[in-house]
Amino acid sequence: MNRPPRLARSLDAFTALQHAAHGTGVAAVRRLEQRGLTPAQFQLLVRVQRHPEAAQQDHADAIGVTKANVSQLLGRLQQAGLVSRHASGRRNAVELTPAGQALLAEAVPEHDQFVLDRFADLDDTELATLTGLLARIETG
Question: Domain spanning 5-139 has what CATH number?
């Protein structure tokens, strides 16, 4: 099939983006699974650590899920002994337990190193360019 050059280049970029995102995502999921976490659970734990005063809706908005999803995720994390929830005025406060803090003390630096390793071949200018280009694509 003979495609216009612009379409061919766009399709090549789209395919490369899909492959990079998929490969990176699969590798990240495997690392988190070794710690018994899903990506959403990891994101939520990090968010609770950094924003302990935030409401569940704030956490949901930040990690891109619904408030019901956050409630379900927190339930599982609570069952695993990684967070505790208690009433605080009109909302439930969420805190990391010592086990949750210990898990993140190991998992966050490990995840940070994983990200550094994935982007090691790009210099700072290339990283900034990539970030800007992806933001432009996202906002379409």
Answer: 1.10.10.10
CA gap 31, 65 in Å, rounded: 22
* Residues 89, 117: Cα–Cα separation, whole Å: 44
pLDDT at res. 91: 77
Helix 39-50 crosses helix 98-118 at what angle (to 10 degrees)? 110
**Residue 15, both tokens:** 């395919």
3-state SS record for the chain: CCCCHHHHHHHHHHHHHHHHHHHHHHHHHHHHHCCCCCHHHHHHHHHHHHCCCCCHHHHHHHHCCCHHHHHHHHHHHHHCCCEEEEEECCEEEEEECHHHHHHHHHHHHHHHHHHHHHCCCCCHHHHHHHHHHHHHHHHC
Which pLDDT tens digit goes with each residue over 77-123?
Answer: 999 999 998 877 777 789 999 999 999 999 999 999 999 999 999 99
Where do the domains of the chain lie?
Answer: 5-139
Confidence band of 52 (pLDDT split at 50, 70, 90)? confident
